[in-house]
Amino acid sequence: MEDFILNQFCIGEEFALHEFELEYMETKTDKSGIDYDYFKYTGKLLTNDKVKEIVLAYNCDILRGIFVTLRS
After folding, report:
1. 8 DSSP assignment
2. Which of these, 25, 5, 10, 7, lies nearest to 62 by C-alpha position?
3. Using an 8 Å Cβ cutoff, are 25 and 39 in contact?
4. Nearest to 58 by CA among 6, 7, 12, 5
5. What pLDDT digit, counting tens, does each position of 1-20 carry?
6. Cβ atoms within 10 A of the Cβ of 16, count?
7. Is 9 exposed, middle or buried (0-12, 13-18, 19+ CB in 10 A)?
8. How far are the Cα atoms of 23, 25, 32, 39, 56 from residue 42, in angstroms, in the given order?
9. What is the C-alpha to C-alpha distance for residues 48 and 61, in angstroms, rounded to an integer?
10. DSSP for residue 13
């Protein structure tokens, strides 16, 4: 497993910071009944070329999760 740092995202930041670089995917409800809106990040990545996709999870327009898919 390779480690890298995504310093352009921070848990707790507002949706408006990346609003125009996001593509809505879906809304899911977790087992606690909390809704999360999932967005694919379509902006320019400030990391290496091994990142295939970044999905950001927001709750009430606050970033709550970052999911990264790497190229194989």
Report:
1. T
2. 10
3. yes
4. 12
5. 566 777 889 999 999 999 99
6. 8
7. middle
8. 7, 12, 29, 9, 11
9. 27
10. -
Extract the tokens encoding 24. 């809505």
The predicted model scores a pTM of: 0.88
pLDDT, one tens digit per residue, over 32-56 is: 999 999 999 998 876 667 888 999 9
Q: What tokens does 52 get?
A: 């295939």
Please state the three-class secondary structure of 19-71 as a single string. Answer: HHHEEEEEEEECCCCCEEEEEEECCCCCCCCCEEEEEEEEECCEEEEEEEEEC
Distance, first Cα to last Cα, the chain: 11
